Amino acid sequence: MYESLLKILNRIGLTDYEAKAYTTLNSRIIAKAEDISLESGVPRSKIYSVLSNLEKKNLLTITQGRPLKYTVVEPNQVFKMYRKSISTDLEEAELRLTSLYESQLSNTNAPIWTLEDSKKIVDKELEIIKRAQDYLYLRIGFLYLDELKSLLTQLKKAKNRGVTIKIISSSQCKIDNTIINISTKLKNNDLLIKEKALPTAKLIIRDDKEMLLVFADMDKTGNVDVDSSIGLWNHYSTIINHYTNAFNMNWNQKK
Question: Is residue 179 a contact partner of residue 223, using CB atoms and an 8 Å limit?
Fold first, then answer.
């Protein structure tokens, strides 16, 4: 357990010596450098510089005197700080890499990809929604059983970012003899919905840049055949414009 804890602390930027000293100080709350060195195994020649680095990282405080005393900062505060910092860094990295990725999409030789696994299809749907900056158009003829919660989470985040969201959906679908009330669930979450009769297919378009089209068969009892579903993800502007125009025509039509 001790070794795994040290590895976790390494992953958030602490050196081996810093991780050992910090772990030891958590077991002592307040201690002298000599005691921390003895218990942690950090050499006495290194302990003062190690503890100074931990102070700079806001993991402990130093009380002046002879000798100096070191007090650990409560772990809850420390990890709250690190979670926020890591989350901010990850979001910035995601935005930069997404921008780089999108700038090169048109240069790829195979801008259409096929997805044949329902989990991969849902993951791609969520990725597209997360990348939306201006608008999202969704046409939902069916949902997978465990899809709704994660879909709503990302749609709410997109809406909070100022993304315009329009959804055309079927009233319901049936999977494994379970009825999913699609339009009701979506309307209950303050999303702009128009209910229409749709085939067992899904469409997501975002920002004139990419779209995902998903098809599935239906068995004789009216259940959506999940194993038959297939997704086509592409960023051909001609195809996207065609489906965008078709979506808007459908949106503006009366029931």
Answer: no
